[in-house]
Amino acid sequence: MFVLGLMSGTSADAIDVALARISGAPPRLSARLLHPAEIAWPRDIRAAILRVAAGQPTTTAELSQLNALLGETFARAALAACKK
User: Are 22 and 30 in contact (CB under 8 A)?
Assistant: First the structure.
């Protein structure tokens, strides 16, 4: 099976992407890392992430919009990893 992992740390500098191939079955499980990547957040999205993380005032609409942007950006990162 293929497994895709995505994360972004507290510095919000990039999305870390790891695509792995896992085969076999316990106790003979084998994992191989394929195409690890780091994809920088767009500057405007990173600024919004850091602003919200710092507890600066925001609105529900702004949080909803940021939530959608994060999802879209993670999805683009996942697709880019799978295309490689």
Answer: yes
